[in-house]
Design a protein that fits this description.
With 269 residues, this protein is of the alpha/beta class. It folds into two domains: 5-153, 3-Layer(aba) Sandwich (Rossmann fold); 166-266, OB fold (Dihydrolipoamide Acetyltransferase, E2P). It is built from nine helices and 15 strands. The strands form four sheets. The chain has a five-stranded parallel β-sheet with strand order 2-1-3-4-5, with helices on both faces. A five-stranded antiparallel β-sheet has the order 10-9-8-12-11, with no helix packed on it. It starts with a strand and ends in an 11-residue tail after the last strand. 30% of the residues are buried. Residues 151-161 have low confidence and may be disordered. One of its GO terms (cellular component) is protein-DNA complex. This is Response regulator. InterPro entries: CheY-like_superfamily, LytTR_DNA-bd_dom, Sig_transdc_resp-reg_receiver, WalR-like.
């Protein structure tokens, strides 16, 4: 198979870089030939670079990812399109039942591996000759999304209450993009908030009071004015010799104090 070329379109540079770094891990032979920060740039770069695959953020200023896809599908040789989204369950449901793939931000390696496997199958010479993803399939999907009101709603900003999908944090001299699913707990630390993941501790400047407003309260529990813990990492609770309720974490030695204001969370455990 010849070298496969790809374009990544997203209006947030760090998310473009993050997706490219993930792709290098699961598909090292893929060559990312261009980045685009908006829909018009995506169209221009697609015309100039003729990528085989285009990763399209759905929500971009100007032309949306859906607008770009609608124009690309009318071209003489449409690229394979993977939509990237952080929103809209209706759109996700539609993608699930279509020939077109999608990724939820930030893309996990496991999910990206499935997308790459689909793309490789479609890019095989025999599949390409047969039209593995015919233009009609993409056109039908775009029509379905538009009929559901998705296309009209795309330019609107995400709701303020939408839960965080990732955390941009400092780790030494590096800045890391941490998927929210990898966070074990947050802890207030003087002027910073510490973000604990399996690989260690990073720092963000967001106060824990503001952070709480951006987290899914079903997935993250505040157990102290300075601590928020991911519910899936809670192994159980116990009382220490002072009578304080302590949260025990799965596979970690540290135990977190539950303040009296939050003890009710653990009634019955």
């Amino acid at each position: 198979m010849d070298t496969i070329r790809a374009l990544i379109a997203d209006d947030e540079a760090h998310l473009r870089d993050y997706l490219e770094s993930q792709l290098k891990t699961v598909w090292p032979e893929l060559r990312v030939v261009a980045h685009a920060a908006n829909g018009l740039e995506a169209l221009r770069m697609t015309d100039e670079e003729a990528p085989d695959v285009v990763f399209l953020d759905i929500r971009m200023p100007g032309l949306t990812g859906l607008d770009v896809a609608a124009r690309l599908v009318d071209g003489p040789k449409p690229p394979h399109i993977v939509f990237v989204t952080a929103y809209d369950q209706y759109a996700v449901d539609a993608f699930e039942h279509s020939a077109v793939d999608y990724l939820l931000k930030p893309a996990s390696l496991e999910r990206l591996e499935k997308t790459v496997a689909k793309l490789k199958a479609r890019l095989k010479p025999a599949a390409a000759a047969e039209g593995a993803v015919p233009a009609a399939a993409l056109q039908a999907l775009l029509a379905q999304l538009a009929a559901g009101g998705v296309a009209a709603a795309v330019p609107a900003p995400a709701p303020a209450a939408a839960p965080l999908q990732w955390i941009r944090a400092s780790h030494g001299e590096e800045t890391r993009l941490i998927p929210i699913d990898e966070v074990i707990y947050f802890q207030s630390n003087d002027k910073y908030t510490s973000v604990f993941v399996a690989e260690g501790e990073s720092l963000i400047r967001t106060p824990i009071s503001k952070l709480r407003e951006q987290l899914d309260e079903q997935q993250f529990w505040q157990i102290h004015r300075s601590v928020i813990v991911a519910a899936r990492h809670v192994a159980g609770t116990r009382q220490d010799f002072r009578g304080r309720l302590m949260v025990q974490l799965k596979g970690r030695p540290e135990q977190l104090v539950v303040s009296r204001n939050y003890v009710d969370l653990f009634r019955g455990m």
